[in-house]
Amino acid sequence: MKTTQLLFSYGTLQDSEVQEKILDRKLKGTKDILAGYIKHEKKMMGKYPIVKPSGNQNDIVEGTLYQVSNYELYKIDLYESLAYSRVLATLQSSAKAWIYVPNVD
Question: Which CATH fold would you assign to the domain 4-102?
C-alpha cells in the first residue's frame, strides 16, 4: 500500500495558513495544470472555488501538486466535507493526482 498520495489543489489548500490549520505543517508543491476542467464562477458556500469537467482539453485550471501522507489525505477529506468528492485525474505533467470536485451542480 502506498504511504503517500499526490494531491492537486486549485483553491484554498494552496494557502499555507489553511495547510497549517489542517495538517500542522506547510506543504511544498510544484505548479501543474488540470486540463479538461474549468474553474466555475459559482463557489461552494460563497467562497470556496469549484472545478467541473468541460470536455474540452483546451480548458485548464492552474494549481499546485502536493505529496501528502495517507493520514494527511484523510484529514483533508474531513476539511473538504461531504460537499466535495475526491477523484483521480491526470495532470498536464502526466502525474495522476487526487482532486476535489463538488457533489452539487
Answer: Hypothetical upf0131 protein ytfp (3.10.490)
